[in-house]
Write a structure and sequence with these properties.
- Residues 76-114 form the SWIM-type domain.
- Keywords: Metal-binding, Zinc, Zinc-finger.
- One of its GO terms (biological process) is double-strand break repair via homologous recombination.
- InterPro entries: Znf_SWIM (IPR007527).
- By secondary structure, this protein is α+β, with helices and mostly antiparallel strands.
- It has one domain (7-130).
- It is built from six helices and five strands.
- The protein has helices at 7-23, 28-38, 42-50, 88-96, 104-115, 125-139, and strands spanning 54-58, 64-69, 75-79, 84-85, 119-122.
- Strands 4-3-2-1-5 form a five-stranded mixed sheet.
- The N and C termini lie far apart (31 Å).
Length: 140
């Protein structure tokens, strides 16, 4: 994990990763702590992970972005390296109002990494550029 999250959140994600590496599942206490730290984003994020909605998109140069198929059917691009999601909830709830650490999409990215539940897709540099530019066109 990158150091963009509070230490308690980083530690919890490490514990979840360790639990899934050792037993292939988490504990009730870990999920309770997840809900306590991340609030209302926790359960929807877990649903996205269960639905295998998170895809790690990598180019030959090593550039990486994540795409999350949201519950509405819209595809959002997330960047774990800078703790950012293109969804409206991230802009409003996280950036403007500071009501939450993360939106459900970026939390799903972190959880899918920890749980080993991330889909993998390798694309060309041009394809990755198109994915990133498509997000900008949607916003513009």
């Amino acid at each position: 994990m990158d150091s963009t999250l509070p230490a308690v959140a980083e530690e919890l994600l490490r514990e979840i990763k360790k639990a899934f590496q050792e037993t292939s599942h988490g504990t009730d206490m870990l999920f309770f702590r997840l809900k306590f730290i991340f609030g209302p984003s926790a359960v929807p994020a877990l649903d996205l992970v269960d639905q295998r909605s998170v895809t790690r998109v990598t180019s030959p140069s090593g550039r990486t972005a994540y795409q999350v198929l949201g519950s509405s059917g819209k595809l959002y691009t997330c960047y774990s390296s800078c703790h950012f999601c293109t969804c409206p909830a991230f802009g409003f709830t996280v950036l403007q109002k500071s009501e939450s650490l993360l939106c459900k999409h970026i939390l799903a990215v972190y959880l899918s990494q920890a749980m080993g539940a991330c889909q993998e897709l390798t694309v060309s540099e041009e394809q990755l550029t198109s994915i990133l530019l498509a997000e900008e066109e949607d916003e513009g």
